[in-house]
Amino acid sequence: MNSFYFKNGLVIVFILLSNLGFGQSKEIKIKFIGNCGFHMTDGINNFYIDFPYKSGAHNYMKYDDKEIEEVKNKSIFIFTHKHSDHYSKKIVKRYNGQKFGPWNISKLVKLHESIPNFEIKAFKTKHKVFGISFKHYSYLIKWHNKKIYISGDTGDLDDLAKIKNVEWTFLNPWIYRNANNTKLVIDTKNIGIYHLYPNQEIDVNNPENHFLLKNQGEVINIPY
138-156: per-residue pLDDT in tens? Predict the structure, then answer.
């Protein structure tokens, strides 16, 4: 009888400690879904960046259909712009989470009021296709004191040049090329190059911390 109460007491203590946060992994996990799409979580809050998009749009990466089914309940969706290789209104309307993008930036930058240890800064950046300008934002996320930069489709260097002490910077190939051509030194520990066509290869400056994001499902861990 004493053994029974002792064992059950340990279980209760473990549950209480887990609820207090001792069971958390203390890391941000960033899963690469495809193209510019990410799932980011700290084990409590879930963010999707430029996902869901139309799989295979403009001949960019397709993703497994299971990604749509595995979207976490009450997630937060953040989009850089509305092009179909970054955003699908048809798919995202299935979910009950908050949705943010160029249409409601003023609400997006207030997320810190409801999410602890989270801030996001939105940069209005240029994105032209065949000479036509589209409304577009790049983002600097600060989460648990770790900074993550999301370029989206811009080639602009102005804001990228100003960011400091970033953990991961995610860049498309043309802004990465622009940075190289102007010899811009980006203050970041790691660079992930996304928005690649299947089998696309580009030269990277520093293979030790500049990575081509080609392996869908790959997870980046950022301890905090």
Answer: 999 999 999 999 999 999 9
Backbone angles phi, psi at 9, to 5 degrees: -65, -40
46 and 39 Cβ atoms separated by less than 8 Å: yes
Number of structural domains (the chain) is 1
3-class secondary structure, 176: helix
Question: Residue written as tokens 């802004």?
Answer: 175
Domain range for 103: 25-223
Cα–Cα distance between 46 and 42 in angstroms, integer? 7
Residues 181-203 pLDDT 10s = 999 999 999 999 999 999 999 99
Q: Give the closest residue to 40 by CA, choosing from 154, 157, 192.
A: 192
**Looking at the predicted structure, is the pLDDT value of residue 175 above 80?**
yes
pTM (two decimals):
0.87
141 belongs to a structural domain: yes
Q: Which CATH number fits the domain that encloses residue 174?
A: 3.60.15.10
Q: Apex CA 11: angle with CA 10 and CA 17, to 5°? A: 90
Q: Please indicate, yes or no, if residue 33 is contained in any of the structural domains.
A: yes
- 6 domain residue, yes or no: no
